[in-house]
Design brief:
This protein is mainly α and about 350 residues long. The protein is built from twelve helices and no strands.
Length: about 350
């Protein structure tokens, strides 16, 4: 019995990153369904972001204080500066620009943009030497094909309805389209830089909850200051009597802005930025499943093919990253064996 429990515990430890990141995207997909409903009823997106992050601060602060009391390093000005920059990249710039882009383009482009994050993060990780790519190796090919297939599957889920490609997006490029695409791309780029920077900062400050709390605090302050200039005072008054508004704020604050940011920070610390963002295509997949089985939307061949491509692409990336981790562990163990028992 004890041996069985050890095997279960070991299996959970190995599968924990995959499980938590998958649940992370499921939580975000559910949140977006509620958010769309609340925003369409007249609530301001900026206000929801600020209130949601305030709830996240209330949840994360006591967890960081009690759970990381012994492992949390001293907070220096350097760490505060990095947390300010992370909050600017991952909360203020990304979320604010994506929200502003909805004034110019449809939400479809935002879904596509989220699936560009793994590609952007992968390229930035290569530039900053956080990721190694041997192009002609099996691992290198798996990463490249995995990213491409996942992105293609996400696009198929969004744009392909059946045997004939039915694109609902106009190809008449207007000034609004250019502005919207620019805002989305800058937001994706900021998020990618934030993911790569997080890997560097978490080495200096290995307290995931505390670091997440700091970046959420700074991001909330920055977003609030921006909202003060673009949001009218009447928009800050939400109708909390509506259950959907309260549920959206709680889900967004606790599940998305709070736990989701922590899970991402933890995954970047343990597996690297490329691994952490490789699960982004699941967001489109979960959205498709919610629309099909919860909201009874019609299912098309494009959706089925796209979902399969997302799964295949994600599997290729995770397989390649798993091989990288095994090689790193083997190298570490070999170096440890080479250390003499008695050192001068």
């Amino acid at each position: 019995m004890e041996m069985m429990m050890r095997k279960v515990e070991a299996a959970f430890h190995v599968s924990k990153p995959y499980l938590f990141l998958s649940l992370n995207k499921l939580c975000l997909a559910i949140f977006l369904v509620f958010l769309q409903s609340v925003v369409s009823s007249g609530a301001n997106s900026f206000v929801l972001v600020v209130y949601g992050h305030l709830i996240a601060i209330l949840v994360l602060s006591p967890l960081a204080f009690f759970l990381e009391k012994t492992k949390r390093p001293p907070i220096t000005f350097k760490i505060l500066s990095y947390a300010f920059l992370l909050g600017l990249l991952q909360v203020t710039l990304s979320q604010t620009l994506w929200t502003m882009s909805l004034q110019f383009v449809s939400s479809t482009y935002q879904s596509v943009a989220l699936n560009l994050i793994p590609c952007i993060t992968f390229v930035l990780a290569l530039i900053f030497h956080q990721e190694k790519l041997m192009f002609w190796s099996m691992n290198g090919q798996a990463k490249i094909w995995g990213l491409g297939i996942s992105l293609g599957g996400a696009l198929a889920l969004l744009l392909w309805k059946g045997p004939v490609v039915l694109v609902s997006i106009s190809f008449d490029i207007t000034s609004d389209d250019v502005i919207g695409w620019t805002l989305i791309f800058v937001g994706v780029l900021a998020n990618g830089f934030g993911n790569v920077l997080m890997k560097h900062v978490i080495k200096m400050y290995p307290a995931e909850i505390s670091l997440t709390t700091l970046l959420v605090i700074f991001g909330t302050i920055q977003t609030t200051l921006i909202s003060a200039f673009v949001v009218s005072s009447s928009s800050w008054k939400l109708h909390f009597s509506q259950a959907s508004v309260l549920l959206t704020l709680l889900l967004g604050g606790i599940g998305v802005a709070g736990l989701s940011n922590y899970v991402t920070t933890w995954a970047i610390h343990t597996r690297g930025p490329v691994f952490a963002v490789s699960f982004n295509p699941l967001l489109v997949l979960f959205s498709f499943l919610l629309e099909t089985f919860v909201f009874r939307a019609s299912t098309h061949w494009g959706s089925i093919v796209g979902a399969l491509l997302v799964i295949v692409g994600l599997y290729l990336i995770l397989w390649a990253k798993s091989n990288d981790i095994k090689k790193k562990e083997m190298t570490t163990n070999r170096d440890a064996m080479d250390v003499p028992l008695i050192q001068p």
